[in-house]
Every structure is written in structure tokens, then in C-alpha cells.
Amino acid sequence: MYRMNWKVVVGSFKLGLVASIEIHKSVDLLADTAQIVLPGTAYNRVLSELENTFRRGQPVSIYLGYDDQLRQEFSGYVQSIATDDGSIKLNLEDEIYVTRVAVADKEFKNVYIKQVLEYLTDSIKTSLGIDIQINCTHTLRYDKFVISKATAFDVLKKLQEEAKANVYMKGNVLHFHLPYEELFGKQYYDFAHNIEKAELSFKQAADRRFEVEVEGITRNGKNVKVIVGTTGGDKRSIKIYGVSDPDTLRKRGEAELKTLVYDGYEGSITTWLLPYVEPAWAASIHDSDYEYKTGWYYVTAVTTTFSEAGAVRAVQLGIKLSETKLRQNG
């Protein structure tokens, strides 16, 4: 029987009791988030006093584990505080929180994503004194890109959505990459051993028929459309402002199609706190009763919940990974 352990530090304050912790990480979202629920009365202090202990922008570290073997599960900042129902809820955001600063309006022409990122990081350095480096492998180019009354966070969110990119902060480095470009680890799951619950359906690529239309809205008002996929399939539409290059639009459509058409599972599995896994890891799903369904999948999201009721991870699966991709990433 495992004994659950945890450690949470908010600013210089080490929490002595929590009601629950939930951590959500996803390659599809700009920020990883977490929520810590504190039972206000357990601290023998009125809520107003506790509210003064915690404040927006405080650094937060969350460690979880079994039998005193702790792993850091989250690092970030207090984004907001709620005290609506007799408890205190600390809503947290990962390192991307530092991008929530206003940036001056600017219009770019014939600009690559990396140049926009450089403008954002320069603005953050001016506002906060934080020197952020950039690791960008995405080559999307805009004919025109406009920043108006926005924060760096707002601009990053727009870039991520339009480019279908994996965007995250690690330390003082802002990463901006193509989807599925990186794999950070591997984990093994077996229906007979470490999967508590599965909400999965297995489908063949031939049964996943999609037609993706990508429309570039140009600066002179003329639209350029590119269609990829199977004619007559379920339709998906994407609009990108300031891009007219057909090859760029086609690559964006193919990236979307890649997430939709493959042989394999779609859905999620629920596991315990161990084994550990994160988004952008490869997960092996093994079923001894149906060996043909066994394969490696790209993890797109993980939600970890921790309370007196137990600790579980909901693991969302994305595309099935090829052996070539697995070898390329060790």
C-alpha cells in the first residue's frame, strides 16, 4: 500500500494542509494550469488573513509522490485567488505567466514567427527585466501581422492557434515548435496492470475521412484557399490572417489532418500517480487480448488530481506514432 505525499510552496509559505490539487497540462493550450483548494478553517485564520498571505504573481512549486519519493509536478505563479465557498482556491499558471504584460502596438510585414517572438521577449525584458531566450523551429511567414491593444500572452495564443504549434516556457527559454516535433519521454501502459479506466475507441484510418480547408486572409482583402484530405469527408475550416503563400497554408492543413487521420485509439486512459507521464511523451498501450491494437501514441494532455480520495492521472492520447519517429527520439 502506497502512502501519498505532497509538498506545496507558495512564495516563502509552505502549505500545511490542502483539500485538493488539480494540474492540467496540454500541448494544445498555451499555459499549463493548476488549482489548489485550501480549507480556510483548517488554518484557524479568517479568510481575509489568508488572502493577505497569498497574492497574484507569487511563485508556486507543487511536488507529489508516494512514500516520500516526491517529484516536482508543477512550477509557476499564482494567477488568481477565489474565496467563494468557505475555502481558498489558488488558480495557478506555469512560467508563461510572465508574458501577461502589455506590448506596444505594431504592424509587421513579411515577417516570420521568430521575429514576432523577438519583439515580444524584448517587450517583456523592458517591462519586467526578465531576459527570455527563444527556441523556435517553426517557419510560418506572415505577409502582415498586427499587434493591437494586446499582451504578449494574447499574441502568443494567436500565433499558437494559427500555426498549430507546441508553445511552452522551460526556465527562461520560450519554445515554439511544430506539433509532434518533440518527444520528451516514454511510458508503458497495459490494460492488465496499470490502467484503471479506459475511454477509448479504435478506428482505422480508412474510417477517418476529413477534408481540411485552410483560408489565408491577405492584407489586400483577397483570400487564398487550400484544401487537403478526402473530398466529401467531414469538413474542418481554418482561417489564418496575413498569410497568402499556398505552400504555407497546405502545410498547416496537413498538420491538422495528421491529428485526425490514423489507425489507432482515440480517447483517454485513467491511471494512478505512477507511472509518471507528461504531454509530448510517447505512451505505449498494450492489450494482450487484441495485440493488433497495441502501439505507441503521442500524449496530448494530462490532468492530475490529488486529494484524500486518491491520486489519478487522466491521459489524453493523440496520434499513433511510427517506429521511425520513436527511433529519431531515442
Summarize the structure in words.
This protein is an alpha+beta fold and 330 residues long. It has three domains: 4-96, Phage tail proteins - horseshoe like beta roll fold (Roll), CATH 2.30.300.10; 100-177, Baseplate protein-like domains (Phage tail protein beta-alpha-beta fold, 3-Layer(bab) Sandwich); 183-201 and 264-330, Elongation Factor Tu (Ef-tu), domain 3, CATH 2.40.30. It is 16% helix and 48% strand. Strands 1, 2, 3, 4, 5, 6, 7, 15, 16, 20, 21, 22 and 23 form a 13-stranded mixed β-sheet that branches. Strands 10-14-13 form a three-stranded mixed β-sheet, with helices on one face. A hairpin with a 5-residue loop joins strand 17 and strand 18. Helix 2 (113-128) runs antiparallel to helix 3. The two termini are 34 Å apart. The mean pLDDT is 90.
Sheet having the most strands: 13 strands, mixed
N→C terminal distance: 34 Å
Note the run of SSEs as H and E.
Answer: EEEEHEEEEEHEEEHEEEEEEEHEEEEH
**Global Rg:** 22 Å
Tally of DSSP β-strands: 23
Structure class: alpha+beta
Number of discrete domains: 3
The CATH class of the largest domain is identified as Mainly Beta
Return the CATH topology of the largest domain: Phage tail proteins - horseshoe like beta roll fold
What general form does the structure show?
flat
Q: Approximately what portion of the residues adopt beta-strand conformation?
A: over 45%
Tell me what the CATH architecture of the largest domain is.
Roll
